[in-house]
Write a structure and sequence with these properties.
This protein has 170 residues and is α+β, with helices and mostly antiparallel strands. The chain contains 4 helices and 5 strands. The radius of gyration is 23 Å and the shape is elongated.
C-alpha cells in the first residue's frame, strides 16, 4: 500500500513537472501572439482609416471624418487622430478639444507625414503612461496629405495578455 501511495505521489509530481514544462513555453508563446495580434489590429485600423480619409480631408467632409475616427477608435479600443499635411488635428476620436493642435512633433506623426508607417511603444507625457502608437500616411496622388495615428494603452494590452495567461494557468 505504501509503495502504491509513493508511486502515485511520484507520478503526480512527474505530471506536474510536465505541465509546468509545457505550460511555461506555451504561455510565453501565447503572450507574444496576443501582443502581435494587438499590433497587427492597430496597423489594420490605421491603414483602413488612412485609405478612407484620403477623400475626406476637406472641410466639407469634417463630420464624416469625425465619425470615421470614432468608429475606428471603438474597433481598435484606443484613440484615433487624423492630421493634415502640416500635422494639425482634423479629427480626434476623444473629442474636439485637440482640433487644430499641431502633432507634427510627435515622432510617429512626423514619420507618417514623411510617407513612412511607424509603430512605436513610447511614454506619453500627456497621459503619463506607456502607449503603443501606430501611424500611417494618408496618401493622395502618391503624396502624403496627412496621417492617421492609433494609440492604445500598453497597460491595457498587458492586461489582455495577463488574462490570456491566467486562463491558460487555470
Amino acid at each position: 500500500m505504501r509503495l502504491r501511495t509513493g508511486l502515485l505521489a511520484a507520478l503526480a509530481y512527474v505530471l506536474l513537472l510536465a505541465i509546468v514544462a509545457l505550460g511555461v513555453p506555451l504561455a510565453s508563446s501565447l503572450s507574444a501572439r496576443v501582443n502581435d495580434e494587438v499590433r497587427s489590429q492597430a496597423q489594420g485600423q490605421a491603414d483602413l482609416v488612412a485609405a478612407t480619409a484620403a477623400d475626406l480631408l476637406t472641410g466639407a467632409h469634417r463630420k464624416e471624418l469625425d465619425v470615421l475616427a470614432r468608429t475606428a477608435a471603438s474597433a481598435a479600443r484606443g484613440r484615433v487622430l487624423v492630421v493634415d499635411a502640416t500635422g494639425h488635428v482634423l479629427a480626434d476620436s476623444s473629442g474636439p478639444a485637440q482640433l487644430g493642435v499641431s502633432y507634427a512633433a510627435r515622432p510617429e506623426i512626423a514619420s507618417a507625414l514623411a510617407g513612412r508607417q511607424e509603430q512605436v511603444q513610447r511614454p506619453s507625457r500627456t497621459l503619463g503612461e506607456e502607449i503603443l502608437a501606430t501611424a500611417v500616411p494618408i496618401i493622395h496622388d502618391r503624396v502624403p496629405v496627412g496621417a492617421v495615428r492609433v494609440t492604445q494603452s500598453v497597460a491595457a494590452v498587458h492586461s489582455a495578455v495577463r488574462r490570456v495567461e491566467l486562463g491558460l494557468a487555470l
